[in-house]
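#structure-requests
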Amino acid sequence: MALNKGKHTVSEIDGVRCTVVESGIDESRVSFLKNLLEFNKFEVRIEKEKKKQEEDSTKFTLGVTDVAFNPVIAVYERVLRTQDGHRVTPAYWNQWTTICNPNYWKLKRNKES
């Protein structure tokens, strides 16, 4: 779920009801979110999406078993933490930067971060 959509989606992944965190994502995004959410003590489930055409790249759906979890609320209430102890900001969640600057409204995208 992108941070600009507040809809809470629950789906079944591997036979377990899960909150869908994001769908249609690639393997690098899955790895980033999986590490972040498991560090914050969530049980993560991943499911491969079916390809519409043979030449399409592999996409995944990532969910957590906590059906009350909402990523938008968790990020903007600053509940999640990074492995080095900083609170996760929207820019960090979206992988625009690796720095958790709390002033997300002043974010300037530069090539270094």
